[in-house]
Amino acid sequence: MKAIQTKNIGLDLGRFQLQSVSTAFPAEKITAIIGPNGSGKSTLLKIISRLLAADAGEVFIDDMNVKMFRTKEFAKTLTMLPQSKELLLQLTVRELVSYGRSPHQKRFGYKMAAADEEIVNWALEITGTVKHADRMYHTLSGGEQQKARIAMSLAQKTDILLLDEPTTFLDIAHQFDVLEILREINQQYRVTIVMVLHDLQQAVKYSDYLVAMKKGNIAAAGVPEDVLTSAFLKNVYDIDAKVKYEDGYPLIIPAIGNVAKDGTGG
């Protein structure tokens, strides 16, 4: 079953173009969008989430064109967490997470019902941020801030969660914390997750499906072991490397002298 489908998405931003992008993201699975910098990964997420309008093509969620959703109904269907940005708002973590309930309230600033409070508490618990609930958000480390932002997204309680580079700028421990939280959300609550990742090994380990992009096009799509191959690395990243899988985890072994493009080795 396809949770999200794009058909012939086109966008011309001058120096960059999306070119008739058609792909699908399976329901109740984790999909990682991978590819070199500037390949269109974040742009595609923004189009799916209606943060950016395409010049051509259509996006469907459960066979319904996203243009047909009312704004509030769309916010109850899909959550988009953009790339991490430093927030200096004077908010506690609990107050930040509570913003996730906004689409479910009658009006902004309306006192939350007990059911909303329970969902906020659930989001704090499952992300391990409940211990920081009364701390000011801007005093947290980068990793804890990202968990709080994910908690806010989870409090929105949608069936689809999009995340743009959720592990960028985090140390390795917090990267794995975040990815483990997302896997738990997917496995326990069957939330469809689509995330942009740069680390190919993490993408394989934590995803059921990969969509690879290159220069505004879909370069490959499928289960991780079918996508991430030596031929794929050469075609998409221009890297000569072997890929060996051990217990489902890829080991990428660059060829000797692969780094230098001028043939001088090093």
From TrEMBL:
Entry's localization field: Cell membrane
Gene Ontology CC: plasma membrane
Residues of the ABC transporter domain: 1-240
UniProt main location, coarse: membrane
Pfam families found in the cross-reference section: ABC_tran (PF00005)
Keywords on record: ATP-binding, Cell membrane, Ion transport, Iron, Iron transport, Membrane, Nucleotide-binding, Transport
Topology term for the membrane: Peripheral membrane protein
InterPro entries: AAA+_ATPase, ABC_transporter-like_ATP-bd, ABC_transporter-like_CS, P-loop_NTPase, Siderophore_ABC-ATPase
Gene3D superfamilies assigned to the protein according to its UniProt record, in alphabetical order: P-loop containing nucleotide triphosphate hydrolases (3.40.50.300)
Tree of life domain: Bacteria
One Gene Ontology term from the biological process aspect of the record: iron ion transport
GO molecular-function term, one example from the UniProt record: ATP hydrolysis activity
Record protein name field: Iron complex transport system ATP-binding protein
